[in-house]
Amino acid sequence: MRWLKRSLVFFVRGAEEVPCPCCTEKLVVIGSRERKVRGGGGELRRLVIRRLRCAGCRKIHHELPDLLVPYKRYESSSMEQVLTEPEASVSVCAETSTLRRWKSWFQVLAVYFVLALQALSARFPGVASRLR
């Protein structure tokens, strides 16, 4: 575990038990892995996230904290800042091509996000009214 000695490492562990998103069975911890994340200022942090296996479908899932977007290397707050405030994207320490990719990624998935939220609000009608 040489990487543990090189820099500050944060261990991520959720307090609640989350069921499998595929089949809603129980998730069992099978280990952990390192995940690197860049902040808005360009600082690199190392996180150790748990690997979970579903007892039902046997798929492996990773327990991601709120600050991570799946398959992305930058914090979600940095991405959100670039997507919502284009003039503030100068303060995010990332290349211009990366910022462009984030914008095109979001434009492609925006319709999916809206439809997923509509489906969730139709499935759980009481929750949407409590959030307003």
The computed structural class is: alpha+beta
Average of pLDDT: 86
Number of strands: 4
Helix run count: 4
Order of helices and strands: HEEEEHHH
Percent range for helical residues? 25-40%
Range of strand content: 15-25%
Describe this structure in words.
It is a single chain. The protein is α+β, with helices and mostly antiparallel strands. The protein has a domain at 2-73. It has helices at residues 2-6, 76-84, 96-123, 125-131; strands at residues 9-11, 27-38, 44-54, 60-62. Strands 1, 2, 3 and 4 form a four-stranded mixed β-sheet that branches. A hairpin with a 5-residue loop joins strand 3 (44-54) and strand 4. Helix 3 (96-123) crosses helix 4. The longest helix has 28 residues, at 96-123. The chain is flat.
Summary of the model, kept short:
This protein is of the alpha+beta class. 37% of the residues lie in helices and 22% in strands. Strands 1, 2, 3 and 4 form a four-stranded mixed beta sheet that branches.
List the helices and strands and how they pair.
Layout: H1 2-6, E1 9-11, E2 27-38, E3 44-54, E4 60-62, H2 76-84, H3 96-123, H4 125-131
Parallel strand pairs: 1-3
Antiparallel strand pairs: 2-3, 3-4
Structure characteristics:
37% helix, 4-stranded mixed sheet, 132 residues, 4 strands, single chain, flat, alpha+beta, 22% strand
